[in-house]
Amino acid sequence: MNDVFKALADPTRRAILEMLRAREMTAGDIADCFTLAKPTLSGHLAVLLAADLVHRERIGTTLVYHLKLSVLEEAWLRLASTMRLGKSDPSCSTDTAPASPSR
Questions:
Q1: For the segment 37-65, what is each residue's pLDDT rounded down to a tens digit?
Q2: Which residue, of 13, 40, 43, 68, has the greatest Cβ tally within 10 A?
Q3: Record's InterPro entries (predicted)?
Q4: pTM score of the predicted model
Q5: Domain 2-78 belongs to what architecture?
Q6: What residues does 58 pair with on adjacent strands?
Q7: Is the dihedral of CA 78, 80, 82, 84 positive or negative?
């Protein structure tokens, strides 16, 4: 799951995901939307693939990228669950902090 949040931390990768939300795209289609060097864009796509946020499909000689919404949904649900558990954890409550020793 850390790979997902690492991938989402970068604004360029978030922009790529937003574009893929609208439609599947080739690497060339994605590159046309940015002024990035090809190796830089390839690096971003590799991070998204490693995090399983996108799926790459070969159609003939073309690589087509698709957004994998299920992974984003799972990450969101896990984050929401973690935050909810953190707030309800009595060991983290300020009411249960040990009293300071009196003098």
A1: 999 999 999 999 999 999 999 999 999 99
A2: 13
A3: ArsR-like_HTH (IPR011991), HTH_ArsR_DNA-bd_dom (IPR001845), HTH_MetalResp_TranReg (IPR051081), WH-like_DNA-bd_sf (IPR036388), WH_DNA-bd_sf (IPR036390)
A4: 0.74
A5: Orthogonal Bundle (1.10)
A6: 63
A7: negative
